[in-house]
Amino acid sequence: MRKRGALAGFVQLLALLLSAGTVAFAAKTSPEILRVSELRPGMKGYGLTVFRGTEPERFPVEIIDILHGFRPNQELILIRTPHPILEKAQIVAGMSGSPVYIDGKLIGAYAYGFAFSAEPIAGVTPAEIMLKELKRPVRSRPDWRGLKPSDRLAGVSEPSTTSRSKRTGPSADAQEARASASTQKDAVLKGFRLGPNGELPTALERLKQAARTRETEEGLLAKPVASPLMASGFTPRTARLIEEIFTEHGFIPFQGAGGGLSTPDASARFVDGGALSVLLMSGDMNLSAVGTVTHVDEATGRLIAFGHPMMNQGEVFLPTGVARVLHILASVQRSFKIAEPVRPLGTLVHDRQSAIVVDQDTPAETVPVSIKLIGVDDAPQTEWNVEVVQHRLLTTPLAFTALSNAIDATMSDRMPIRVRARSTLYLRGRAPIVTVDEGTMSQGPGASAPLRSLRGFTLMEAAYSNPFGEELPERLEIEVEIRRNERPERIVDISTPRTRVEAGSTIPVLVRLARFGENERIERVEIPIPTYLAGQKAKLSVMPSSQLPRAAPRFTSFDSFIRYVEEARPNTSLSVALTLPARGLRFEEHVTDRLPASVLAALQGVSSTAPSRPFESVSEHHFPFDRVFDGRAELELFIEEKRP
């Protein structure tokens, strides 16, 4: 009987333990929450965050009130956090996502702060809206890769049946077709972000545009608590560049952390209130954004964090990891957590208004970037390798940052240098695309602005905004040859023997050039004067070929854009341009210039689904040299009738 009673007692105890485990698991999977409607001023509870190490600690919380209509379909819970560290540090960057509980029930995540606040007051994003994001499905591919080509044409819409019904007859249909094609082609040019004179986009253009959009969208009352951006392996100059690029996106760059442990801690895992890193760059240089986990759903392997967007980019695939907090730095200007990743784990799959969502079972794609420097054999390191995130806004700026840092770290000398960069871009399903660019950095390696214009970066940016189909960057290799103490030659002035020249003749143009520390010199080139300019005035200009305005054709495929980029003129050649009174037309993939006004008007009126656009045409002549040029000079010529 005793044995039977003991066995029955053991079974009851086991059932009780299993029941408790089931309840605990259910609570962990779907936490018990208090809705905003159940909260009252004066309620007290606690929050969880990591002050040091990896284990979350409690901090006291008191509800002040509810801010209604803070965001679309979102309230904001105002709280006070009377904790010794927080009373000193006020709002702490990196605490975004720290879960807050009342009566043991989750009410939301510490997420918003107030500028110049003298009290430890924060805004909490309600749990109910955050938990909805856990259920949001993930498509098989990110937005920018999943769109149909026709959907990528920003601002393009199909003509409505209403507007179509107001027009009748073939001529109306033709006009409508031309208008639709014109709108679509304008969108293509806008998608590739060419300048008004056909200039190619730079490495930072799209990210800066996104920053301007962010500034107009954010309110003045409460802003998301910034995310510390931990940077390791960067020079002070590059650290300032990172600050310039990322501060306007809600990050606080901090140099000296972010590299993580040399051997990842395999036992580290995500927990409610634990620290989380978004790994933007890893390898010889490391860059990671820090926040806090709000809740881990162990049934699905997903978790929510931050309580606000990181960059509000929707569906993304960015690598994440468990982080360790080294210290909370209290600052009058901005307090933040100093942290580093200890184990790569999971992928950020949603970057939404109320939270980011991480899936621990989804792998993240990254883009390898390799950099090799030639001509600096005395440097301790000449080859650099990093992995950067696969993202339409971040990949190219991060690759540019890595290149800038590699050159600056390799050459600490503050001397002018000339660089010859050979970029090889690998796009999925394509042969490698190779471009070669040359330029000078007069202020030394730290003055990295010229590197932004490498055509490898241009093509990578274009791949992410390509309106014609999917183009996925898989790898970027950059080989940079460096020549020390070489400055550009500046175009000082130009002259001709006479300013009245004969149509049909060939005239000499004398270009006066100067380089720092050297005597001025004269370069002589010859150009023909078109016969049809007789009796006209024309402007003669000399400039580096890279600065000569280009009339971009109307691209019909990504291949046509690649050709346009590959044909970009180098700044190691001089261009002599004669601006003509005639204008030209840009058609599908080709340009026709020097058209009389009557022909121009006739061609523009031709019915076509690919209408042309006029531009100012020039007679161009290019002269290659083994030097880099800058500056420009102009003079006016009067073309006389050809003598019999």
Main beta-sheet strand count, sense and barrel state: 6 strands, antiparallel, barrel
Helical content stands at 10-25%
Work out the radius of gyration: 31 Å
Structural class: alpha+beta
| CATH fold label of the largest domain | Thrombin, subunit H
Which geometry do the CA atoms define? elongated
Label this structure with key terms.
single chain, alpha+beta, Thrombin, subunit H, 4 domains, six-stranded antiparallel β-barrel, elongated
Description:
The protein is of the alpha+beta class. The protein folds into four domains: 27 residues; 272 residues, Thrombin, subunit H, CATH 2.40.10; 118 residues; 152 residues, no CATH class. Helix content is 22%, strand content 39%. Strands 1-2-3-7-6-5 form a six-stranded antiparallel β-barrel. Helix 8 packs antiparallel against helix 9. The longest helix has 28 residues. About 14% of the residues have low confidence.
In short:
The chain is α+β, with helices and mostly antiparallel strands and 644 residues long.
Layout of secondary structure:
Layout: H1 2-29, E1 44-49, E2 57-71, E3 74-80, H2 84-89, E4 92-93, E5 99-102, E6 105-113, E7 121-126, H3 127-134, H4 143-146, H5 161-165, H6 170-192, H7 205-217, E8 223-224, E9 227-232, H8 236-246, E10 251-255, E11 275-283, E12 286-297, E13 302-305, E14 314-329, E15 335-351, E16 356-359, E17 366-374, E18 383-389, H9 395-410, E19 417-427, E20 433-441, H10 455-464, E21 473-484, E22 489-495, E23 500-502, E24 506-514, E25 521-528, E26 537-544, H11 558-566, E27 573-587, E28 590-595, H12 597-604, E29 613-624, E30 629-630, E31 633-640
Parallel strand pairs: 4-15, 9-10, 17-21, 22-30, 23-31
Antiparallel strand pairs: 1-2, 1-5, 2-3, 3-7, 5-6, 6-7, 6-8, 9-12, 11-12, 11-14, 11-18, 12-13, 13-16, 14-15, 15-16, 17-18, 19-20, 19-21, 22-24, 24-25, 26-27, 26-31, 27-28, 27-29
